[in-house]
Structure formats: C-alpha cells, structure tokens
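Tutorial, part two.
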Amino acid sequence: MLYLYLGRKKGYRHSGDVTFDHGFDRSNIQKPFAKRVIKEIDKSEVLGKDSIISPIIGSRASTFLSGSSKTLICLMYGEGVGFYLEAMGDDCLPFLKEIADSKDIYMCTTTMRDLFSYGFNKFVVENTNEIVTDRKRWLDLQLYYLLEIDSYEEQV
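Running the prediction step on this input gives:
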C-alpha cells in the first residue's frame, strides 16, 4: 500500500541517489523488477552486479543510473526509507504502483499528481490517515494541503 504525506516530511529523501550509492546492495539490479526499470526508464541493460550498458553512453557502473531508477529500486528492495514523489517522473508511476501492490511504501509530495491515471485506486493519505479510493476526494485533499504550502512560501 502507498502511504503518501501531502507536504514536506522530515527525514524523507529527495531521490534514491544517496541511498543507492552509499550502502545499498547494488546487486539488486540483477533482479527482474530492477532490470525492467532500468530497461524502461534508463533505456539500458544490466550486464552484471554493478554494470550497466547504455546504447548512448556505453558500459558504466550502476551509480550512473538515473535518480528515478535508483529511487524505484530502493523502494522495492530497501526498507524504512521514505522518498519524495518528485524524485520520479510520470513514467515511473506504473512501477511505483507495482511496488505498492506488493509492500507498504512511504512517500511525500509537494506537487499535485493524478495517481488514478496510473492505476492507483486505493492509498493512504497520512495527513488524515484516510484511505483514498475516489479521484475527487484525492483532488480535494491535494488542493487543501498543497495550496497551503504554496501560500506559505509566497509569504516567506
């Protein structure tokens, strides 16, 4: 299940770069889910435990993967780290849905996204601990919490 906090949340990471590059078991890139992510998001192939080949750049270490791919891989194979939804583009949302269908993941966001367009039909908004199953309610919650952030930043 996806647990999503609307707004900034202390301790959440803006992308998977640091988590992936420092201390994460990068051999996870050899697992089927990670290979699909790398192929679709980075247009690259996994050669080995820490080796990727790109048709444009050539052979490289996995630390050169995009932040989007790293974030998805960390969410799938890591535990206890929350990320900002802004760490990934819309092309990542089907993968995020797949992860959320298999385990609990925690994210936060400061921007509006229509998760229902990407197959999400049930998730928890942590601000209210509400299970959201309706697009209109999702829009209402985003407007309430995210417009509050924008108006605060304009005052600062």
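The chain has a mean pLDDT of 92. In part three we will examine how such features are distributed along the chain.
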